[in-house]
Write a structure and sequence with these properties.
This protein is an all-alpha fold. The chain has a single domain, classed as Ammonium transporter AmtB like domains (Ammonium transporter fold, Orthogonal Bundle). It contains 15 helices and four strands. The protein has a two-stranded antiparallel ribbon. Strands 3-4 form a two-stranded antiparallel ribbon. Strand 1 and strand 2 form a beta hairpin.
């Protein structure tokens, strides 16, 4: 008994010492718990691009183009990863003007292992934000899948991330005018999803329709891959949204809960609508709905209650379903994998819904109506900015590189073979499948 008591006292004393040390450490600025969570979140967000998005998109295209999609996702992680370190981070998060940062942090100049961003090392913040920069241009490829030259894709996403993404990130999160104006975008409804969705629409229209669209059926070649990709996106999104709190705190907990709630609601609502509309619910619809719900809650995840998240997810299920099944056929554009319908419309709805379902007291001195208007203004600006800049980028690249689209023969052969000399599948005899 006496030995046990002494052991208990020693253990308790040790916990007090460790607690005091952690408190003193946190008072110095660095919080190890926050740092561990953002490191983990960074891994989760990278998981969203490769393999999450790669599998999601890869299963949706035809068999002869599956490797091209996987390669485009993979190279986004590589190419944008380098560009972000060299110049992207500085343009987004260094001191600048209302629209873009400067070059004071070119190649991460002035940052050391001891430099902090809030309670985490700035290197960790750089890495976390790099994951956002990597997935955003990769999202766009779904709109013009199966028809852009690989070299043109490399040039397009390189310029786009510096001219469109980095300035928007600065305007919203880096001290620019949208953030100062008071519009809310917690984890990227404007910066990530609207920018990629609207830019993707412009690129799809500019490049033109796939050969045979819409007369020829082009069904997904491997829905199990798509479902696995959607599942990985759902898991990774917890890092995407809850990680944006940049701390292991109650705000992260709220974002974690609302993220799942909105996605779950969107799946249910989409299923019901599709069942009533088409007679049967589909696996493709369920996977698409999950992503739509995740997109919509992204800007609002730390600003709404769980009940608000249900409303956001329900809206995503309704509006994104309408965009995919009604708007696209009516307007006739060929958004191959419904990037605009899911990310453009979903991001726009989520940004407006952030104001509509905002937790009371989340904004001081701003009325409900005024906040909704701020959200609408930010949505309008993002749509115009992304569309206008993307169109200019495509025009300039066309003048420099020539045709950005593969030839009819290359498209018929498939991008796997024509752009990479590989095939995702072979027969038992070794014959390439395309």
């Amino acid at each position: 008994m006496r030995t046990g008591a002494r052991g208990s006292i020693s253990t308790f004393a040790g916990l007090l010492v460790l607690s005091g040390a952690r408190t003193a450490f946190a008072q110095d600025g660095l919080d190890s718990g926050d740092t561990a969570w953002i490191l983990t979140s960074s891994v989760l967000v990278l998981l969203m691009t490769v393999p999450g998005l790669a599998l999601f998109y890869g299963g949706l295209v035809r068999a002869k183009n599956v490797l091209s999609v996987l390669m485009q996702c993979l190279i986004s992680a590589g190419l944008i990863g380098v560009l972000w370190i060299l110049v992207g981070y500085s343009l987004a998060f260094s001191d600048g003007n209302a629209f873009v940062g400067g070059l004071s942090k070119f190649a991460l100049a002035g940052i050391t292992p001891d430099t902090l961003s809030g309670t985490i090392p700035e290197y960790v913040f750089v890495m976390f934000q790099a994951m956002f920069a990597i997935i955003t241009p990769a999202l766009m490829l779904g709109a013009f899948a199966e028809r852009m030259r690989f070299s043109a894709y490399l040039a397009f996403i390189s310029v786009w991330v510096l001219v469109v993404y980095a300035p928007l990130a600065h305007m919203v999160w880096g001290g620019g005018w949208i953030g100062e104006y008071g519009a809310k975008d917690f984890a990227g409804g404007l910066v990530v999803h609207m920018s990629s969705g609207f830019s993707a629409l412009i690129a799809a229209i500019y490049l033109g329709k796939r050969r045979g669209y819409p007369r020829t059926l082009m069904p997904p070649h491997n829905l199990p891959l798509t479902v696995m990709g959607a599942a990985l996106l759902w898991v990774g999104w917890f890092g995407f949204n809850a990680g944006s709190a940049l701390a292991a705190n109650g705000q992260a907990g709220l974002a974690f809960l609302t993220t799942h709630t909105a996605a779950a609601t969107a799946v249910v609502i989409w299923m019901v609508i599709e069942w009533l509309h088409r007679g049967k619910p589909t696996v493709l619809g369920g996977a698409t709905a999950a992503v739509a719900g995740l997109v919509a809650i992204t800007p609002a995840c730390a600003s709404v209650t769980p009940l608000g998240a249900i409303a956001v997810g329900a809206g995503a299920g309704i509006f994104c379903y309408m965009a995919v099944t009604l708007l696209k056929p009516a307007l006739g554009y060929d958004d191959s994998l419904d990037v605009f319908g899911v990310h453009g419309i979903g991001g726009m709805w989520g940004a407006i819904a952030t104001g509509l379902f905002l937790v009371h007291g989340a904004t001081e001195g701003v009325s409900w109506g005024a906040q909704v208007m701020k959200q609408i203004v930010s949505v309008g600006f993002t749509a115009v900015f992304a569309c206008g800049m993307t169109f200019v980028i495509l025009l300039v690249l066309r003048m420099v590189m020539g045709d950005l689209r593969v030839t009819d023969e290359e498209e018929q052969e498939g991008l796997d073979l024509s752009q990479h000399s590989e095939s995702g599948y072979t027969t038992s005899s070794g014959t390439l499948v395309g």
